């Protein structure tokens, strides 16, 4: 049975959903992840989270602990910024069309929830995205030669990716569910906690092994490695001879 998931990269529940989708896809289960922007009216630079809001996120992760399967874990560092995720959605929409969607989904999720990076900033995403985008199958010059996936105004580079973001948002809006993630399967529409529980059941059905937590995106390849692995390039960008630093959240 195939599953369709709608999710935003800055949603705590979507972090767990993203990891479970990785497990299912690795086990050969067909899962179509579609990125949507949960809070499109945020300022371009995002919004600093108050101490109460950060406490609320920590509490939400504590509640999600009850749903964890053996081997699963959740981040313990709470970001200081709530980003406007338009740029992240745009990057994912480009990656979706060129065969590197899984890499970019992992990267964007880890950058925000493990590093606190402003994934709404095209400048912040430029270096990390370069590797997976260059490894994709695009014939568009900006993507194929330079690894660009997000324009300066946070939109996609190609019309196809722009149309994809619009379609995903319309589909999600038509479902009438404001809670994310949303999972569609077998004619059922599940959201929030119910969606996470269904993904967990699918993992049980598939008898899929739980993958370890995602690596630090800034980790360098082992000493003496002449050519980095595709996984490392996916995290750190195509020009591996120089590292990159994720700008601190404002």
Describe this structure as you would to a colleague.
- The protein has a single domain (3-236), classed as 3-Layer(aba) Sandwich (Glutaredoxin).
- The strands form two sheets. A four-stranded mixed beta sheet has the order 2-1-5-6, sandwiched between helices. A two-stranded antiparallel sheet has the order 3-4.
- It is an alpha+beta fold.
- The chain starts with a strand and ends in a 14-residue tail after the last helix.
- Helices cover 46% and strands 9% of the residues.
- The protein contains nine helices and six strands; from the N terminus they run βαββαβαααααββαα.
- Mean pLDDT is 87; it is low at 220-226 and 239-250.
- This is DsbA family protein.
- Residues 3-126 form the DSBA-like thioredoxin domain.
